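Changelog note: in this version the structure field was regenerated for every chain. One regenerated record is shown below for reference.
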Amino acid sequence: MPHASPVTPLEGFDRAWLARVPIVSLSAEPDASELHDVERAEADRNKPRRRRELVAGRTALRRALRAAGWSGDRPLLPGEQGRPELPQGFSGSITHKDGLVLAVAAAIVDGRTIGVDSEVLGERPRVGIASRILRPPELARWKAGGEAWPDLLEYFSLKEAIYKAAHPHLPRYIRFDEAEIAADGRITMHLLHDDGPLHLIGRRWWEGDRLISVASCRAAP
């Protein structure tokens, strides 16, 4: 997937697009020209660092939604738990890490929703989180593979994307051990309550030291 283009189609996800927008430094003024007037006013009510994140996030989400077919005629304002309220008929998700915002959006087909996460490898591996985020088969496979931090980060990131994709169908906190990722990438949900069933697909890839994960979810018949 080319890194230079700000909006690209997502391979393997029907009618889905990925947009990238850098977060400008505190010494630069963020470009809010693509935002709705109401969104600009909302951003201006925040402190400078948060304002830059909001401007970049809404710009990225708007670009992805427009690529997916949205007219762009209304503001995308914070809704439940700070998530942006999306236009009817569309799904979307935002993530930001180390100066870059990523947003995915797609027209909803067969009730399928989408989520994205981004992580950066970093200099300090946090392998101690393994027992909290991996189910027993995942943990055994990770240990057999040498307990590499990048491998563990792949589980963490894809599960974050899974929970974002599943939230419209299951608006509650989902534990890490409620999702299991097989060696071939297949996703099985082990929901603790009488929820679902949910059908999920996911993809993850590296761009240098940055990991990007995308998942989509629909309620299984």
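Spot check on this record: Helices lie at 37-44, 48-67, 130-133, 136-144, 149-166. The CA atoms of residues 141 and 183 lie 8 Å apart.
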